[in-house]
Amino acid sequence: MAEQATRLEAGTACSLYLYGAVGRGKSWLLDGFFQSLEHPHKRRLHFHDFFAQLHQGMFTHRDQDDALGATLDGLLQGCRVLCFDEFHVHDIGDAMLITGLFKALFERRIFVLLTSNYAPEGLLPNPIYHQRFEPVIRLIKAHMQVLEVGGDQDYRSHPTAGSQQRFTQGHYLWPGSPAQRQAVNLPQGREPVQLEVGKRHLHALFSQARTVGFAFDAICEQPTAVMDYLELARRFDHWIIEQLPDLSECSIAAQQRFINLVDVLYDQDKHLVLIGQQPLPDSLGGSAIDLARTRSRLGQLNALGPAGCTG
């Protein structure tokens, strides 16, 4: 990483692709590189936030011949170093947009550092679509140095991991008794409310200043999207999500929405109180591809169970 920083200043750096299992320190390396880099035109972005802005820009510039170019001009604004955290591809529509994105970034000679839980060959793993994404994989390998960040330790599981983050100051409660709710100072006297988010209305259990509460069904079983979560995250710093079911009994779509929601809350460093009916590990079954990342992130919450239980 230090060598790449030196080469970057000299204009000879090769973009980097860091991959590995969850909690192995990829984001820590990215953050350290970004913070130590004395470069005036650098940006650090999360996958969900960047892609939401990219889609919005493409819609805004849809009548232009080069909608992607116009969108990137607005998003990057002279950026020469782009650090891109938690890169993953599961949707063929996103994959087609990513093809153009990477071509444009490399043509602009922008240094890209990205992290992913997947080796390039593991991106868009759906066998129905994977072959159509292989040109992007070849592009990544041609323009980026691919490095695995390995090891057996999930550093997020360390007691001091993320001690300065608001997210990790949150709690997981089960079964969510009145005494538990009082112990973590959950709001009293709550009234349901309809929140306008984009062009839809979402049913919230309550909304008070910068605090909001949702039932799992209302936020994850409904056709919500990442852009909804990002908008809500801009409005609320403290989140309470109740009635977490056993994810293994939910649809893949609901599991994926929950994964996306946790990603947004973690990336935006929001305080979360999650309430279920059983120990957290027992609630996080399921077969959605990225649940390992969700388990790792939620594992940083402070667990409060029935008397004598901490799981």
TrEMBL record:
GO terms for cellular component: cell division site; cytoplasm. One of its GO terms (biological process) is cell division. Transmembrane segments: none annotated. Keywords: ATP-binding, Cell cycle, Cell division, Nucleotide-binding. GO terms for molecular function: ATP binding; ATP hydrolysis activity. This is Cell division protein ZapE. It comes from Pseudomonas aegrilactucae.
